[in-house]
């Protein structure tokens, strides 16, 4: 169970940075800071998959980074299974698995070593670690290249290793930042199968994406972020209902339009 | 922290570039460089010493003894020429017809009889670094003028027995109080620091880039940050790795110098080197190492701070080149003649360590001064490590 309330984050702008005209029109630029995320709230229950949608630069990555404790929010709260991420970041981190498309591996280390390193950093005991990695290797069919160095792996092998690394400590929630962007079809399939697998065992997954077909096939809930505000949060059926045709693309555009109308009115 | 340290170390050990920089370079390349340099230098010197200089003498009949001595000198070879005017001689030297022209005034003998001073001209290209030619010429001239002095004085009726005392009333015999080691230490002590300290930086810089900017570039930093490990532990683990490689580089260099020094010293003619090396006790070597540790820590934390800030490998490398140039300034200052270890110079980072190493090699180190420098360096290193830890907590540094 994940609950996010009124999350906000601003970045200080450098003195030298000049804003373009379009940027000046963006309501998020104020004085000397850029309010990347202004007000984001949503929740995700046990075993649910939540899709995070939004245009480029809407604040999706920043939101996910705050969720994963890499960034500290200015305001708002994040609760993961009742653990306040802001108050107890180290405890919360043990429950989070994080992965993005450009997450890399240590090229000089083998698949096993890459995964084991993060397992140890998560405080896992050697015996438990070994067993867990063996389990993951079987699950992802990775035994063939367990001792191959990441530098010599194919993209698919790398992505499998990255997935195994993200869940080695059996996280209570998995956060994925555009996990399929820039990957080939086979590798995308690996990632999608992995999300399905998590869903089956009841682990909640939050992932951001630009692919609406992924949302249609995987998600239980949808959140649309635009200009740092969660413009829509609800289940898939509610989202579809926004467009008369029931088409996801139309529904997405409808949310954005409604949002900009509200902005104009305000 | 140790997990990070161990993993970074394993990764580095598998990296060929690091191995080359930290281990191979100091072991093999440095002695090779010095060997080649020494060889080139000694062979060019020998060549310059054996070189024959073509010369033209104008009015040689005015000083026949000198002309004869010049003619029979093995490094001079006479060339016939009709030129007499200085401008023509200069032009001919520029054209490469001969190397040097000696112009004796045509009234030289007349002036000599009247006991008047006359002026000779020596025309040659003075830009050469190894100016053996003028040294030979001066030797010849000194002999010749000595003869003339004796002749003139005898002609004036001076007692020949007293001539030596008149010509050179004072003869100085130099007695050196510095022992051999102090002498060698003064000359080479600073040089050793000059080699040792940059090596700490060199050995540490590649791993440092890899661990900060490299981690950003590979996209592994974010996953590392959200591990349930404090950021201080991550930084310290990385810092220790950089420190280890820097020290390893320096240690291997010292060892390689020692071993190569002994090997070269065992050949003929290098007994001095052997003697000097033998005089340096293990305690002093340990003290030198003790000085190097905090210095390496300073470099390691600086390099790591730069590397964490940089977005890419390239950016980090761009920031590092000015750092290495900056480091050479105090090192060069320590090498300058007349720069001594005082309370003031003991407070200048890097320079103080260089001076301390020099003193230790000379064997004239003052214990309290060494302690002061060690304290100052440790304090600076601690401050920089603290900065590095603080730096690593900044979102604007990590997510630029």
From TrEMBL, chain A:
Which Gene3D superfamilies does the protein's record reference? Answer: P-loop containing nucleotide triphosphate hydrolases (3.40.50.300)
Segments forming domain ABC transporter: 22-252
Q: Which GO terms describe its molecular function?
A: ATP binding; ATP hydrolysis activity
**Is the keyword Transport assigned to this protein?**
yes
A Pfam entry, by short name: ABC_tran
- Nucleotide-binding is among the record's keywords: yes
| UniProtKB keywords | ATP-binding, Nodulation, Nucleotide-binding, Transport
| Record family assignment | Belongs to the ABC transporter superfamily.
Task: Name the chain's protein.
Answer: ABC transporter
Species in which this protein is naturally found: Alishewanella agri BL06
UniProtKB/TrEMBL annotation, chain B:
Q: Name one GO molecular function term.
A: ABC-type transporter activity
Topology relative to the membrane: Multi-pass membrane protein
Q: Where are the transmembrane segments?
A: 20-41, 188-209, 221-240, 247-273, 285-310, 322-339, 369-392
Matches recorded under Pfam families? ABC2_membrane_3
Q: What is the top-level taxon of the source organism?
A: Bacteria
Protein's UniProt name:
ABC-type Na+ efflux pump, permease component
Chief place of localization: membrane
GO CC annotation, single = membrane
PANTHER family in the cross-refs: ABC TRANSPORTER PERMEASE, ABC TRANSPORTER PERMEASE PROTEIN NATB
Give the Gene3D superfamilies listed for this entry. Answer: abc type-2 transporter like domain (3.40.1710.10)
Q: Does the keyword Transmembrane apply?
A: yes
Pinpoint the ABC-2 type transporter transmembrane domain residues: 17-385
Q: Report the locations given in the UniProt record.
A: Membrane
Sorted alphabetically, the keyword list is: Membrane, Transmembrane, Transmembrane helix
